[in-house]
Amino acid sequence: MSLPNQIIMPADGAPNPFTIPGTTRSYKCAAGSSLSVVGDDAMILCNAGWVSAGNAVVIGSGATSSRPKNALVGQAYNDTTVGGLVIYAGPKSGWLHHATGASV
Q: CA-CA distance, 11 to 7, in Å (whole number)?
């Protein structure tokens, strides 16, 4: 296993809770929450549709009103209004704070 990664709430349609295949390790994450997950499990969760704060590709910077309208799940934006990185989790979940998972 590798170092922990920060995983935020699952993207729209991702299974929640999710059990790592072949194990009894199960993860559940509510809106406004984040988890610290070991690297191997984080990769499996991301493949199942969860969102990783550590693997996000930053696609811009600016005020909340300037966030991209066509972002893809997992893309990040440096939101100067919020004062931090936000990650897009899909049309239902919207933009989530990179460290807390809170909707912003």
A: 11
How far is it, in rounded angstroms, from Cα 98 to Cα 85? 6
Q: Are 96 and 77 in contact (CB under 8 A)?
A: no
pLDDT digit string, tens, across residues 10-68: 778 788 999 999 999 999 987 667 788 887 898 899 888 888 777 677 899 999 999 99
Enumerate the domain spans of the chain: 4-52, 57-97
Helix, strand, coil percentages in the chain from 3-state DSSP, rounded to 5: 10, 35, 55
Report the first-to-last Cα separation within the chain, whole angstroms: 32
According to DSSP, residue 11 is labeled: P
Q: Do residues 11 and 73 make contact, with C-beta atoms less than 8 angstroms apart?
A: yes
Length of the chain counted residue by residue: 104
